Amino acid sequence: MSPAIPHPRARALARATAAALALGLAACAGETTAPQATAGPAAAATGPQAGMSAPIVQGQGLDFPAALAEAYATMASYEDRAGDAGDAAFFRTKAMAAASTPVPQPESAPTRELERARAALMLSMNARETLPEQLATAQAAYDCWANDVRVGTGITPIDCQALFRDTLRDIQARG
Questions:
Q1: Exposed e or buried b for every residue in 128-160, given b needs 16+ CB within 10 A?
Q2: How far apart are the C-alpha atoms of 68 and 97, rounded to whole Å?
Q3: What is the pTM of this model?
Q4: What average pLDDT is seen over the chain?
């Protein structure tokens, strides 16, 4: 009897949970750096406003919910490295929600500019099947941008607005 291959959502939930546990254990042990998330090359950038222009979960062949869970887990890792426990917890919660049913909708828009961005994102949701990793990056970046505006901390480890716009532009060009 061959071992069962877990569903992509189960793998994503396991990875998101493992990342959250590892981050929690690192914090308890006094570690100052977060473990690397399982993400594409874009996740290797560090520092304030790190340039992320490629999908966060690139080339893993994940379906949209699994890719979204991975993207949120990567965002949590960035926030942990930046020392923002509140935002890291926000994205860990989103990662676990993305790995379950139903997949979470993008955050509500706190400004008119974000209302337009959310509307453009919602119009691109038909790319769930064809560009799941790019769409997951766009949704995670949008949620990051909306959260940054809502919280208003000023310094963020990722230029979420630029990542959202670049990724959405790529989705629209391919779609």
A1: beebbbbbbbbbbbbbbbbbbbeeeeeebbbbb
A2: 9
A3: 0.71
A4: 75
